[in-house]
Specification:
Strand content: under 5%
Number of strands: 0
Helix content: over 70%
Largest sheet: none
Number of domains: 2
Oligomer: single chain
Number of helices: 10
Order of helices and strands: HHHHHHHHHH
Structural class: mainly alpha
């Protein structure tokens, strides 16, 4: 083998190893969003534990510990140290947080109904759990509702949620997530405009070229779509909030070096709350 052939072999081998490295990395990235959900579930559990009275812990902790040790054994299979990863099996093991959430939810319900521990204040623990469950619930039912507002919006919503979780894990940037959140707001506005056009019975109303940033256009859409589910005033305010959030997200989109995760978190919470409220129009 001459020197040129040896050089070719070196380059070909590096290309092969590089592609394999990227392929294995992509298998891990597919799990990043789910792993981030697991982190959020564990953070929620830590918050809950800080509000439980010691007497309660003595009664429930053994059961919680046994279940979480079992969960942890499974978690070790899907999240081994990097040198022990079986990349071929990685995609076969789904990550789920339902066990932890259900365990604490059922325990809190049992505490509430137990006459032996009715002196325990569960309000803060319940609030943490309810907020977490509301977040999960919205992420589950909103795709179907959004799909009714604009075709393809349900899938775009799921992709945006996945990207947001990857940002929490520092895999992708704030600006990339902001672009997706903003674009979904724009698509929702487009869907609402189409819905308003289909429901309009007044030929004198000009519904061409409606823009979210224009107060009169938002008012016109709200006037047509408002009904028993959401009043005209509420819808006007909601569309105004949507325009304001759209503007804030546009600011985050313009700076690819932005690392303002706290601002993105605030935007995300507003974003999902706005989508949730708007989605009642298609229930």
């Amino acid at each position: 083998m001459n020197k040129l052939d040896k050089l070719r072999d070196i380059h070909m081998e590096r290309i092969k190893r590089g592609k394999k490295y990227i392929e294995d990395s992509q298998k891990i990235i597919k799990h990043v969003s789910d792993v981030q959900r697991q982190i959020q579930s564990d953070e929620m559990a830590l918050n809950l534990l800080s509000f439980f009275h010691e007497d309660v812990a003595d009664k429930y902790a053994p059961m919680w510990l046994q279940k979480e040790e079992n969960n942890n054994a499974y978690f070790e299979q899907i999240m081994p140290s990097f040198q022990d990863i079986n990349f071929d099996r990685l995609s076969e093991l789904p990550i789920t947080t339902s066990g932890t959430v259900y365990m604490y939810a059922s325990s809190i319900y049992e505490m509430e109904t137990s006459s032996n521990i009715n002196y325990v204040d569960l309000s803060k623990a319940k609030s943490i759990l309810e907020n977490y469950l509301q977040k999960l619930s919205r992420e589950e039912y909103l795709p179907n509702r959004l799909e009714l507002i604009n075709t393809g919006l349900g899938e775009a919503f799921n992709i945006a949620i996945d990207s947001y979780n990857k940002n929490k894990a520092e895999v992708i940037g704030v600006d990339q997530v902001a672009i997706q959140l903003r674009d979904i707001l724009q698509q929702v506005w487009g869907g609402l405009c189409d819905l308003a056009r289909s429901k309009n019975t007044d030929p004198t109303k000009n519904l061409n070229h409606l823009e979210l940033k224009k107060v009169n256009d938002r008012g016109l859409v709200a006037e047509i779509l408002a009904d028993h589910r959401i009043s005209n005033d509420d819808l006007v305010n909601l569309l105004s909030d949507m325009e304001s959030l759209h503007s804030t997200l546009s600011g985050l989109c313009k700076d690819p070096l932005s690392n303002d995760s706290e601002k993105l978190d605030n935007c995300y919470n507003q974003w999902i709350a706005i989508l949730d409220r708007i989605s009642v129009l298609v229930i």
